[in-house]
Amino acid sequence: MQSIDIEAINQQIYIDSAFVEKLNEETSKVIVGQHHMIERLMLGLLAKGHVLLEGLPGLAKTLAIKTLSSAVDAKFQRIQFTPDLLPADIVGTMIYNQGKNEFTVRQGPIFANFILADEINRAPAKVQSALLEAMQERQVTIGRQTFKLEEPFLVLATQNPIEQEGTYPLPEAQTDRFMLKVKISYPNKEEEREIVRRNMSDEGFGKVSSIVKPEDILKARKSVRKVYMDEKIEQYILDIVFATRQPQEYGLSNLQPLINYGGSPRASINLALASKAYAFLKRRGYVIPEDVRAICHDVLRHRIGLTYEAEAENISQEDIINRILNTVEVP
Q1: Tell me: the pLDDT tens digits for 76-99?
Q2: Does domain 20-199 have CATH number 3.40.228.10?
Q3: How far apart are CA 171 and CA 229, in angstroms?
């Protein structure tokens, strides 16, 4: 009986995920390569999670986010984070209306579907914190009034890893609010050749059409929750996360002096949700271990704290995650 149910779910997900290929086609009109980044942005969109992009300048982070928002026919706002930014510049403020002799609310750029928080680590802590209520509670408080944010609501933040002067690194409690931390790499030689040719051509890049409505995304999110996850996959996710906290119990005693702290329960929740969303993107109605392994680095890399010993030995979060994935038994 269970297999019949899974088959029905599989067929339904295959129908519901039809727009994924169209979205990929639209974004490829503007973005050359960077499939990993586009896929992770879609994961965040479908799993209702925010995404932190880390990469060098010029790797199309801003362009990718803007292109995706155009294809989804959603409101897009770009906020350039700078050291002199104030919380009111993000959420809005109270303005005195002389004619009515009263204060009225002027909403800030946070009132949109897609928020690009560009170079988020350039703004001080109070501005970063102003973003937290919006990200976590999906609401904004201005004065005594609280406003619900329109769904879908997605914060896509970027940070430059090479410049530390004049930056305010995000505290662990804030990075934990992001479902995924995605590292962006350089395009390969063929992709870069195509980028150069498009930029030199009169035709340039194609125009993106709005092929998906916000309500389609909300419907897809409900479908993502219906993707079947077996108890063995749930146990696999828990084993991976618990191995970051108690590595000695998984035959990884050599990792214990390298890990300062492991993934929180948010890590388990987001790993499960992102696995379901990944299966949805692959147009499947059930999660397999490869789905978990595919997105594991993006979910965990900002949730594992390294000790001084690990930093001294040049061991990164990626190295630790690789060791865990190579050791924890796959169902």
Answers
A1: 888 888 888 888 888 888 887 777
A2: no
A3: 32
